[in-house]
Design a protein that fits this description.
Distance between the termini: 20 Å
Number of strands: 12
Bound molecules: pyridoxal-5'-phosphate
Order of helices and strands: HEHHHEHEHEEHEHEEHHHEHEEEH
Oligomer: single chain
CATH architecture of the largest domain: 3-Layer(aba) Sandwich
Strand content: 5-15%
CATH class of the largest domain: Alpha Beta
Helix content: 25-40%
Largest sheet: 7 strands, mixed
Length: 380
Amino acid sequence: MITRDDALALDAADPLASFRDRFHIPNPSVVYLDGNSLGMPPKRTLERISEIYHHDWATDLIRSWDHWVDMPQRVGDVLAPLIGAHPGEVVVHDTTTLNVYQLVHGAIGLNPGRTVIAISEHDFPTDRYVVDGIAEALGYTVRHGFDRLDDVAVVVRSVIDYRTAELVDVKAETARAHAAGALVVWDLSHAVGAIEIDLHDCGAQLAIGCSYKFLNGGPGAPAWTYVAKELQASIRQPIWGWFATEDQFAMGPEFRPRADIARMLLGTPTIMALAAAEVGIALSAEAGMRAIHTKGSALTGFAIDLCDQLGLATPTPRDPARRGNHVAIEHPQAKAVVKELAASDILFDFREPNIIRAGCSPLTTRFVDVYDGLAALPRP
Ligand SMILES: Cc1ncc(COP(=O)(O)O)c(C=O)c1O
């Protein structure tokens, strides 16, 4: 029998517990189990935005562009170790949706002669819609599922299922796709800042993700693009903006893509949002992905055990090696329950058709939050 005291004991022994003090907590009684949608605000974020406002913008004015101009690359280098990328392989910019669009186009260009894009019909909607749109524009075919890859140009795939939290074997699936002659664009939105992953060890060459979930980058925080060094000179992207061109300020007659990761950029970066994102990313880097992943597995394991105790059904894998940092709970009144509990400061989220997601953000979620949140769910 798991008790609330067990949760408190786990919190007392948690080596990451002090990180919660680095975040703004709206009130001590809030139970926040939705960091998988929107991470909590680091206290430092507000200071950093204020510094950028008062010092860089209000005082130094346009001169600040001397160090703002390459901020997408600099913040990318802060993020790189969280995903096993090398310096110079990640840029933080624009939105996940846009970055999927760019990278799928880029991958298609690298794999001419094939006209099939493979994606799961259960993947996150924006990824599916972008793929459908590209296929329609180029006359490509979309195939749902990954069983057959021998005629596929590009596989587009989330590392962690946004509903069930099931984690794909990225290394095995990348190798299988490459052996079949397909490239893979991985979506790490639910993986970055949640699980320890080494994209180089997995052989992954192309990836995107967001920074507003487990990275605590802020609402609408810029997303990121990873392109492995070996593809950077040859990948072409479909939106030719001046931040991606060589000798940007020469204002030349034609677009000549830069030789490095910055060729994935578009136009003027969102400096305030980037500064905020950097704070969240740096906090995960400070805690370290090994410790974050270990606590995430413990939190989700605790949540699954509680589900069993409370008679709540979960499709989330029981093997910690096969799951990300949320637990999906099937409930016939999922939508109404999530809405009702939100009114009493217990925050989950809902996904169609009947899923309550309990997000476990290792830097902010306590075991007692998991306990109180799940205990508040009505038995189906
Ligand atoms: C897997 C995945 N891809 C993409 C997105 C969203 O894309 P965007 O950041 O452009 O809204 C989400 C949002 O939750 C997501 O879970």
